[in-house]
Amino acid sequence: MDFLLSFSRLIDALNEAVGRLVSWLTLLMVVIGVYNAVTRKLSQTIGVDLSSNTYIELQWYMFALVFMWGAAYTLKHNAHVRVDIIYSRLSERGKAWVDVFGTVLFLLPFTAVVLWTAFPIVFESWKIHEMSPDPGGLPRYPIKAALIVAFVLLFLQGLSELIKRIALLTGHQVALASGSEEEPSL
């Protein structure tokens, strides 16, 4: 179990780093959005087109990266949306069982299916160097590859969370999303 917990900590560290990087993309995305809005208004005022599809698509791509690559970070911090009418009333051990079943039955199979279906699409996009159909648009193949990275990160974080929940259920001390050491005597 110690090896698996070390592997879990490695995954957590990776997704923590990616999450922090992605948080900076949010700021950059806002700056580009402001630039897009200002140049569009200025273009209308002075009659010279200063805006570009490149910046608009760049903003979309950054939003996609924030959303996709932030998913594993969100899971790591247990900050995802959940309907917890019942879950919130469960003991830590009960929550761990729900998390184990949810991860095994839903999260890991879902991420595996997305990866399985996305690989051919991404491969084809890279093969033809797919471009945006819009004038001045960006290449599409890198953002499609980001989908693969996102679901690999999410799959790995799912494994990490599964390892931590099983460790908790088997009596090991585990640091969960709250950051506190959980007592093994549940």
UniProtKB/TrEMBL annotation:
What does the UniProt entry say about where the protein is found?
Cell inner membrane
> What are the protein's UniProt keywords?
Cell inner membrane, Cell membrane, Membrane, Transmembrane, Transmembrane helix, Transport
Q: Which family does it belong to?
A: Belongs to the TRAP transporter small permease family.
Entry's PANTHER family? 2,3-DIKETO-L-GULONATE TRAP TRANSPORTER SMALL PERMEASE PROTEIN YIAM (PTHR35011), SLL1102 PROTEIN (PTHR35011:SF4)
Q: Name one Pfam family in it.
A: DctQ
Which coarse location class describes where this protein primarily resides?
membrane
Q: Which residues form the Tripartite ATP-independent periplasmic transporters DctQ component domain?
A: 29-166
* InterPro entries, sorted: DctQ, TRAP_DctQ
Q: Give coiled-coil spans as residue ranges.
A: none
What is the protein name for this chain? Tripartite ATP-independent periplasmic transporter DctQ component
Q: Which domain of life is it from?
A: Bacteria
Q: Does this entry carry the keyword Transport?
A: yes
GO cellular component terms given for this protein: plasma membrane
Q: How does it sit in the membrane?
A: Multi-pass membrane protein
Segments crossing the lipid bilayer? 21-38, 58-75, 96-121, 141-159
